[in-house]
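hiii so um. not sure if this is the right channel but i have a protein structure encoded as tokens and i wanna go backwards to a sequence. like what aa goes where. can anyone help
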């Protein structure tokens, strides 16, 4: 009888451990891959989950340079690399900066998506579908 309870406790322990590892894997996936880009176009995306993916991705990278930041700065060019070996090996920081500039357009697009979707977010994080938004708009038009 004691063995039976012991086995049940072990199974529960391992199931709880694997559940906690899934969330850590998801967080690592959010830091490595820009999954928030695909989340923007999915109508069934949870708003809070998309924001979580976006924040986790950008917390390990420098934010992209905005146009407002560039205006007025003439010395924005980096020093050129001299040897082929220096050109071959780039630092982790430089690689992150390149990634941030690669996704600069998507960054601005996500910020715009956040502003546009904010009024349509439900308490649970779900976003109203386009057909639900149209129905609300039609109701408002009929009242006027």
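sure thing!! here u go:
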């Amino acid at each position: 009888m004691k063995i039976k309870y012991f086995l049940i406790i072990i199974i529960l322990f391992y199931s709880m451990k694997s559940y906690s590892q899934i969330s850590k894997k998801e967080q690592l996936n959010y830091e490595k891959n820009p999954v928030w880009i695909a989340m923007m176009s999915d109508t069934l995306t949870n708003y809070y989950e998309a924001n979580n993916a976006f924040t986790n991705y950008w917390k390990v990278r420098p934010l992209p340079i905005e146009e407002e930041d560039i205006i007025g700065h003439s010395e924005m060019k980096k020093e050129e690399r001299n040897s082929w070996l220096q050109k071959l090996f780039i630092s982790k920081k430089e690689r992150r900066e390149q990634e941030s500039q690669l996704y600069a357009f998507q960054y601005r697009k996500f910020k715009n998506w956040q502003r546009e979707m904010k009024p349509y977010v439900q308490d649970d994080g779900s976003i109203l579908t386009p057909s639900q938004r149209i129905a609300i708009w039609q109701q408002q038009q009929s009242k006027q």
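oh and The mean pLDDT is 76.
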